[in-house]
Design brief:
Layout: E1 2-12, E2 24-29, E3 34-36, E4 52-56, H1 66-70, E5 85-89, E6 91-95, E7 101-103, E8 106-115, E9 133-137, H2 164-170, E10 172-176, H3 195-201, E11 206-211, E12 215-216, E13 230-231, E14 247-248, E15 251-258, E16 268-272, E17 283-287, H4 292-301, H5 320-323, E18 341-343, E19 391-392, E20 402-403, E21 407-408, E22 420-423, E23 426-428, E24 447-457, E25 460-476, E26 481-483, E27 492-494, E28 499-502
Parallel strand pairs: 19-20
Antiparallel strand pairs: 1-25, 2-8, 3-4, 4-5, 5-17, 6-7, 6-16, 7-18, 8-15, 9-17, 10-11, 11-15, 12-13, 12-14, 21-24, 22-23, 24-25, 25-28, 26-27
Length: about 500
């Protein structure tokens, strides 16, 4: 008897994070709390240069800090205790025929993952201190000066890959979504593909991904540029912290899905709100809105490998009616600004800077020199990086191109049709579920989750999880046996018929 293993994929109505981690949770912020030119980390007390998709506390404003966020009446995230602010530049589409810009639909809000990676030889992850803020990414970056795809992780310990400059750029991901295929690995592609590639390959949109630094100097809650008080570990998500940054914080990872597929067949180009066609200038901001004491308790206790906030009894889970009604107060000067569609320029008249030269937009700690009007500038020639199925990570070490594979044995419900085979070894099931997933018959074994799919229908956000299942094939067989009998007996062959079954 021998055993062979094969892999089957099917969908379940929850999101996953792939990477075997000691513990993590994912914070769903399925509704925006605002869409406006507000950025207290870069443009404190004044109108920001470009438009942002904002999630979290209603206390967010052009002067927001932790105290203001905690004083907010509500949060657009599902955990009531999380009054943090999470924001990134929005994505727009410029129509070639009209020259006008329209906001691309943001599918399913955003997810902020809290990954709990301690330093080597330690079990400690320190909560964000109250007043803590940071930025990941560089709004003015317009090129990538390293090999494409990434070199093997084993070579990241030598220059120039052991530098913060490389790690910062490797912390960006643009995941081409096609749910009929095995998902690409997170952070596999560090640039935004052009429209022709998106139309041909990304029929379910693009997931923007952003990793934040998780190594802290232990003393400064912020810095002039909102970056120099923190650093990336040696492998972006995991690895060792550099000298001078000994304290390991929760590793923040943002996911935002944009429905680029809605513009398939329409001539035009996608441009990030900061005037970036390349994606190299994508970035994100964070101000903690947690009680430091509460967050430390959550870091210590919310260690279920499912990553589900429902599996941590500390969290108060809000229903969709509550979090979806939470909005920031837009300043009067911005109240009538069109940031949605039919615009002849990007909000704020941000010019499109195609690169590869460095742009001159507003950055924390420096003045803005971006003046002028958005144009129909065309992008530089981008790298070619075709679809590549992610591979399952076998350890807690992040590998470029790896599929994250967190484990869960949660219970879910569905009203989906029965699985239908797509190939000899693959089964695909489309399962729809509301944002608030109800419990149902439990899965018999722990599953290996792969990727996220969202669909928005009216006020309902549906989440779909791709899960890897291990199928054991039992084969029973024996060799032909020849029995020699007496002269009065005859030879006979005994055959054990081969039988194959699934269990």
């Amino acid at each position: 008897m021998r055993f062979t293993d094969s892999v089957a994929l099917r969908a379940l109505p929850v999101i996953t994070f792939g990477l075997t981690v000691d513990a993590f949770w994912r914070m769903p912020c399925l509704a925006r709390s605002g869409l406006a030119r507000i950025d207290p980390l870069v443009s404190f007390g004044t109108v920001a240069e470009h438009a942002h998709a904002i999630h979290g506390s209603s206390g967010f404003s052009e002067t927001a800090d932790t105290a203001a966020l905690l004083a907010g009446e509500c949060t657009s995230c599902q955990v009531a205790q999380d009054k943090s602010a999470y924001w990134t530049p929005a994505l727009y589409f410029q129509n070639t025929a009209t020259g006008k810009f329209s906001l691309v639909n943001q599918v399913g809000g955003m997810l902020a993952y809290y990954l709990l990676y301690p330093n080597s030889g330690s079990q400690n992850v320190t909560a964000f201190p109250e007043g803590f803020s940071m930025i990941s990414g560089d709004t003015n970056q317009r090129n990538f000066s390293y090999p494409v795809p990434d070199i093997p992780k084993s070579n990241w310990n030598v220059g120039p890959y052991n530098t913060q400059s490389f790690l910062r750029q490797a912390a960006l991901g643009f995941n081409c979504l096609d749910y009929s295929k095995t998902p690409e690995g997170s952070l596999y592609r560090h640039y935004l593909p052009d429209k022709s590639y998106l139309d041909a390959n990304c029929k379910d949109g693009v997931r923007f991904e952003l990793m934040f630094p998780s190594c802290w100097n232990g003393k400064d809650k912020t810095s002039k540029d909102k970056k120099s008080h923190v650093a990336f570990p040696s492998q972006v998500m995991t690895g060792d912290c550099p000298d001078g940054f000994p304290v390991r914080l929760p590793s923040l990872f943002y996911e935002i899905i944009w429905d680029t597929a809605a513009f398939a067949g329409t001539a035009g180009q996608f441009v990030v709100a900061n005037g970036d066609l390349t994606g190299y200038g994508f970035h994100g901001d964070f101000i903690t809105g947690w009680s430091e004491t509460f967050l430390q308790k959550a870091v210590n206790q919310c260690t279920n490998l499912s990553g589900k906030i429902e599996d941590c009894s500390l969290f108060t889970i809000q229903d969709s009616a509550t979090y979806s009604s939470c909005n920031i107060s837009t300043p009067n000067i911005l109240a009538k600004e069109n940031v949605v569609g039919g615009m002849t320029s990007l909000p704020g008249n941000v010019p499109i800077v195609a690169g590869p030269g460095y742009a001159s937009g507003a950055a924390a700690g420096g003045p803005s020199t971006n003046l002028g009007v958005s144009s129909a500038a065309t992008s530089q020639a981008m790298p070619t990086l075709s679809y590549s199925a992610g591979t399952s990570a076998s350890s807690a070490q992040y590998v470029p191109g790896a599929i994250f594979a967190a484990k869960s044995d949660g219970s879910f419900s569905s009203s989906s049709p029965e699985p239908t085979p797509a190939s000899p070894s693959t089964t695909l099931v489309s399962i729809a579920a509301a944002a608030a997933v109800t419990s149902a018959p439990s899965l018999s074994d722990a599953k290996s989750f792969y990727s996220t799919q969202y669909a928005t229908e009216g006020n309902t956000v549906k989440e779909v999880l791709w899960v890897e299942e291990l199928v054991t094939v039992t084969e029973q067989e024996t060799s032909t046996v020849t029995v020699t009998a007496d002269a009065n007996q005859r030879k006979r062959h005994i055959h054990q018929h081969r039988r194959r079954g699934l269990r």
